[in-house]
Amino acid sequence: MLAASTLGCFLRRCLFREGKGGVHVSNYGQARLEGNVFRGLNYAVRCIQNSTIVMLRNEVCECRASGIFLRLSAQGLIAENNIHSNGEAGLDIRKGANPIILCNRIHSGLRSGVVVLGNGKGSIRSNQIYNNKEAGVYILFSGNPVVSGNHIFQGQAAGIAINENGRGMITENVIKENQWGGVDIRRGGDPILKNNYICYGYSDGVVVGERGRGLIEGNHVYCNKGCGVWVMSSSLPQLLGNFITHNCMYGLAVFCRKDPENMEGNWPGQEGIGGEAGSGERRGVEGERREGQENLNEEGELFAWESDLDSEDERHSARRAISVALVESNCMSYNGAVGLYVKSSEPLNVFANLVNGNRGTGIAVLQSSQLTRLVTNCILENGRGGITVEKDCRVELRGNGIYKNCGHGVSFCGNGQILENDVVGNRGYGIQVLGGADIKVMRNRVQPAQGCGVAVLGPVKGVVHDNVLFQGHPGNKKELLHMDAANENCVLRNNSVLRHNQSCTSALPWVLENPPPRPLASSPSGLSSSQYPSRLGISMTTRISATVESGCHNGSMFCSILSSGVSDAILVPACSKDANSTGLRTVEIN
């Protein structure tokens, strides 16, 4: 409809080359360009001052500045063009310009593919954006486009960068094989990043840098060589319902500051753009301003990006009143190191996530001067411990299910509380509290596979009360509740210790009910259980029991059924010998 309604000058199959500019449209002008070649100009097309342009099937290449430049409420349709090898951005959109950028190939630029800034808008849809030396799409200074359905790949910097209070709706893109972060958000960047595939990057999947913000929801972040998601603790993103899997390093890492030692040089740099001097965060020479490069712009206009801001109020209008970073309802699975790594100086809320199958610890809190809350998460079958909390950290563990991890269920050296968790089937201790911890351990249900249920080691202060501890394997001779004899500052009270009856004369049931196995379906935000990945991580029997009768053979007399998938039933060893005994018993799964 836009193309059909555009009148004015019609240029078709022309060659524009080696001049100052190709086509300039201004003052409500209209033009239609089809099948032209723009090569070796300062710029190819400049559309300003409420003008409208339709560009179909043109080639725009080797311009010394940006290829196509739209500003001052310009609009139009730019479709099926080949835009490549330009000295600045392939397309530059700013000052209220609002074009439709559709089905183009935007590639091999010496800087970014598309730049949107200074309250520029636009719909950038179904393009192939690749092999640019800087960001495929760069949004900054209150730029606010819709970026959807694009294939952004093989860039030499970030796939999409949102900086300096940039915004944008970024949905359903495939962002892959980029050298730096697939998506890089920082310095007040506040986009909605939703339902994208961010994969096979040579660094991290998503980077939320210093003072970054945004809603990051429903994305698939996988097979990146760095972290799945890397968040600076000075930023305040919301990560909801993402699948962060099979990345080579941490699933999600929250760091307290820019520290190259943290990630052995994997800090993803901030790209330079349009002649701006870079921040100190860049990595590598490709993002640096090249010596002697000149910005060539119509009528002597400088690339002074800040001058495109209409007001200071508008610059900050995108910020939402969020005071704590939120990590909720994500799957962080099968990553090469820790599932969730926290080294933060800011508060953090971690609710209802599934953290399973990671090669390192499920959740590791190494630094947490403000309160980190770990609530209703499922931490399952990780290669080391379930949750590790280091000295001087402030952490609350509440309502989590911590199952079948290869180390201790919980190892806690910091300050805080461990309340109402189910810690079952871990290979080390169920809950280990040590060092100078100041802790409350209350109303937990603990069944270790091999070690102690709850072990209080060293000069720990606090209380351990109203916990239920059950022996795992009958061959486990460790104390279910152990406290060092020299400890005078920790109080043990009203804990229930249940062991197998070695006389084989009676049955001793232990049931995870009232409440059923944690994590429970209820949540801080009121989402249903079907929306919670933490509920998908575990299916359990309604009754975990050890029935020991006469004539039992040696071996496991206790059955704990855990499943990372969905099954109708599981076959487990039976201890009784009756007429129908086959050595297996079918146990229905909740």
Describe the protein's architecture and organization.
Residues 326-427 form the Periplasmic copper-binding protein NosD beta helix domain. Pathway: Protein modification; protein ubiquitination. It comes from Dissostichus mawsoni. InterPro entries: Beta_helix, NosD_dom, Para_beta_helix_rpt-2, PbH1, Pectin_lyas_fold, Pectin_lyase_fold/virulence, SCF-Subunits/Alg-Epimerases. Residues 266-296 are annotated as: Disordered. The chain has 590 residues and is mainly β. The protein has a domain at 51-258 and 323-498. It is 3% helix and 38% strand. The protein contains four helices and 60 strands. The chain has a 19-stranded parallel beta sheet, with no helix packed on it. The protein has a 19-stranded parallel beta sheet. It has an 18-stranded parallel beta sheet, with no helix packed on it. Residues 258-319, 523-530 and 539-590 have low confidence and may be disordered.
Lay out the secondary structure:
Blueprint: H1 2-5, E1 9-12, E2 15-17, E3 21-25, E4 30-34, E5 37-39, E6 43-47, E7 52-56, E8 59-61, E9 68-70, E10 75-79, E11 82-84, E12 91-94, E13 100-102, E14 105-107, E15 114-117, E16 123-125, E17 128-130, E18 137-140, E19 146-148, E20 151-153, E21 160-163, E22 169-171, E23 174-176, E24 183-185, E25 192-194, E26 197-199, E27 206-208, E28 215-217, E29 220-222, E30 229-232, E31 238-240, E32 243-245, E33 252-255, H2 260-263, H3 312-315, E34 325-328, E35 331-333, E36 340-344, E37 348-351, E38 354-356, E39 363-368, E40 372-375, E41 378-380, E42 387-389, E43 394-398, E44 401-403, E45 410-412, E46 415-419, E47 422-424, E48 431-434, E49 438-442, E50 445-447, E51 454-457, E52 461-465, E53 468-470, E54 481-483, E55 490-493, E56 496-498, E57 507-510, H4 533-536, E58 544-547, E59 569-573, E60 584-588
Parallel strand pairs: 1-4, 2-5, 3-6, 4-7, 5-8, 6-9, 7-10, 8-11, 9-12, 10-13, 11-14, 12-15, 13-16, 14-17, 15-18, 16-19, 17-20, 18-21, 19-22, 20-23, 21-24, 22-25, 23-26, 24-27, 25-28, 26-29, 27-30, 28-31, 29-32, 30-33, 31-34, 32-35, 33-36, 34-37, 35-38, 36-39, 37-40, 38-41, 39-42, 40-43, ...
Antiparallel strand pairs: 57-58, 59-60
